[in-house]
Structure formats: C-alpha cells, structure tokens
C-alpha cells in the first residue's frame, strides 16, 4: 500500500493553512486573534513553502 496520496493531501493542506495564516497575519482575513499579527505573516509562507517542497518531492518521478 502506498502513502503517496496521503502525502499529497498533507502537502496541499500545508499550503492552504500556510496561505490562511499569511492572509491573517497581513490583516486581509479578519475574525481571529491572529489577524494583524506579524508572526503569522512570517510563519504562514514558511508552512506553505514546506507544503510546496513536500509536494515536489512526493510527485517527483523515481529513478
């Protein structure tokens, strides 16, 4: 049994969460204690970047 589909879903979830945290940190997405907090404007892109990196590694063809 392969873990590839689960890892792809996890990578996509990381990207979505990272984007949400970024928008909240920048103040574009209101209604949370995270809104306008600079910390989340930094953590969000890092989490989204990890999701992109994981997606690249998981979907890369094996040699």
The computed structural class is: mainly alpha
Task: Please indicate the percent range of residues in DSSP E strands (runs of 2 or more).
Answer: under 5%
Order of helices and strands: HH
Tally the beta strands.
0
Number of helices: 2
Instruction: State the distance separating the first and last CA atoms.
Output: 20 Å
Mean pLDDT reading? 92
Q: How would a textbook summarize the main sheet?
A: none
Q: How does the overall form come out from the CA principal axes?
A: elongated
- Helix coverage percent of residues? over 70%
How many structural domains are formed by the residues? 1
- State Rg: 14 Å
Key attributes of the depicted protein:
63 residues, mainly alpha
Report on this model:
Helix content is 71%, strand content 0%. The chain has helices at 4-26, 38-59. Helix 1 (4-26) runs antiparallel to helix 2. It starts with a helix and ends with a helix. The model has no long low-confidence stretch (mean pLDDT 92).
